[in-house]
Amino acid sequence: MYNEIEHLDKIILPELVFSARHGLLQAEKTTPQQFKVGVTLWLDTFFAAESDDIADTVNYADIYARIEQVMLGEHHNLLESLASAIAKAVLADEQVQRVRVRLEKSAAPLAKGVNLPAVLEIEREAADYGL
């Protein structure tokens, strides 16, 4: 029997890959680069486990669509801004209480002729965005 205690479970979508245009340099604004996005969602899945009904949890396809819209939408100069936009889009789903976003730019220009992966990881809660 459900005991009225909030359960915070995790759903993890570990590696979503996108070709997108984000970055400070002009070349990054015009030439698509590979980005990898991983998200961890914290939510109560107790009712979904009992009901076996998608309405009682998040739909992975909807979460993917939210992330895709951010990745392929408005340009962001900074990974920090892009990761925050992803977090906000995911947290707009009222089932999600907290999110961790891991964002990897596969070939970030670190120095002339040096392109290496750059990874940023953030955690946000719905209250951070007034949601």
CATH superfamily: GTP cyclohydrolase I, C-terminal domain/NADPH-dependent 7-cyano-7-deazaguanine reductase, N-terminal domain
Radius of gyration: 17 Å
Mean pLDDT: 91
> Any idea what the CATH architecture is?
2-Layer Sandwich
The total domain count is 1
**Per DSSP, what share of the residues sits in E-state strands of 2 or more residues?**
35-45%
Indicate the CATH topology. GTP Cyclohydrolase I, domain 2
* Element pattern in H and E: EHEHHHEE
N- to C-terminal separation? 30 Å
* CATH top level label: Alpha Beta
Please bin the fraction of helical residues: 25-40%
What is the count of helical runs?
4
Shape designation? elongated
- Low-pLDDT parts are none
Annotation, overall tally of beta strands: 4
Question: How are the strands of the biggest sheet laid out side by side?
Answer: 1-2-3-4
Q: State the secondary-structure class.
A: alpha+beta
Q: How would you sum up the major sheet?
A: 4 strands, antiparallel
